[in-house]
Specification:
By secondary structure, the chain is α/β, with parallel strands linked by helices. The protein has one domain. Strands 5-4-1-3-2-6 form a six-stranded parallel sheet, sandwiched between helices. It starts with a helix and ends in a 5-residue tail after the last helix. 41% of the residues are buried.
């Protein structure tokens, strides 16, 4: 991060002072790198690190007895599992807040939001978790790469998929999914009244449109923008190699199974679930 002093300073302040930092954004926008750096900076500051990561928690739900009915298809998590992870995550954050009340504890995680991936953390709800998420000590950081950095990240992701440096890189969303999610976000921007260059063909990545959509999604939260303007040197290591002591926030199997069954009960028919997930961006 030394090559981008403004970003390094921003992350260091968050790592030292925030109680919870959740990095929001599409896949392929640098979220994992920011989490990696935040974890190391917070550890250097003497804090106890706890991590909440979508791709670490999600498989527990898919492997649960109820979750086995909803396998991933073409790199996309089933909607029931997405709902279940969100239901569990709000409860898990509250339990963490109570269990790890000392200021030395820091929770660092990701909140993709797109397509109903932990969007529950952005929504205001009448529950005991809401004050935790609404507090100024809980920061949502929107990772916003420039067009050049986004292009590099997409190419690097494709390269790492073929020659991974870490097992989790095999589970990264493939390029086709990245493009589909960007198209989905463009549709959300249009629904929100955000101007989009809707010329013919594939809509190009636009950092301003992307930022404005995520700012709208996080309007009920304390949100900061982390502008990624520089291609950072990551060719020799994986952003998933967090070389500090940390505790992963994970559900027990029975918790994951119960959350899947809860999601099934909330959406007993597939059309209702599809309609709800299609409007994931309504917060």
């Amino acid at each position: 991060m030394a090559s981008d002093r403004a970003l390094a300073g921003q992350l260091e302040r968050l790592a030292r002072s925030a109680r919870i930092v959740l990095v929001a954004g599409l896949p392929g926008t640098g979220k994992s790198l920011l989490i990696h750096q935040l974890a190391h900076l917070a550890a250097d500051a003497g804090r106890v690190i706890h991590l909440l990561q979508w791709d670490v928690a999600r498989p527990v739900f898919e492997a649960s007895p109820a979750g086995r009915r909803y396998p991933m298809a073409d790199g996309v998590t089933h909607a029931v599992v997405r709902k279940a992870v969100g239901l569990w995550a709000r409860r898990a954050l509250l339990e963490w807040q109570r269990r790890c009340a000392a200021p030395r504890h820091a929770l660092i995680g990701e909140a993709p939001l797109v397509g109903n991936r932990l969007i529950e953390l952005a929504r205001r709800m009448d529950d005991a978790t809401e004050p935790v998420l609404a507090a100024a000590s809980c920061r949502f950081v929107i990772a916003v790469p420039s067009a050049a950095v986004r292009g590099f990240l997409e190419a690097e992701r494709e390269r790492r998929a073929a020659r991974p440096l870490h097992p989790r890189e095999r589970e990264d969303a493939p390029p086709a999914v990245l493009k589909a999610l960007w198209r989905e976000l463009v549709g959300v921007a249009q629904a929100l009244g955000i101007p989009v260059d809707a010329g013919g063909g594939e809509p190009p990545y636009d950092p301003l449109v992307y930022q404005r959509v995520y700012e709208a999604l996080l309007r009920h939260r304390h949100a900061d923008v982390a502008a990624l303007q520089t291609v950072l040197p990551t060719s020799t290591f994986s952003v998933y190699e967090v070389a500090v002591s940390r505790v992963d926030l994970l559900p027990r199997e029975e918790e994951a199974d119960a959350a899947v069954r809860e999601a099934e009960a909330l959406f007993p028919d597939a059309p209702a679930l599809a309609r709800d997930v299609a409007r994931w961006w309504v917060v």
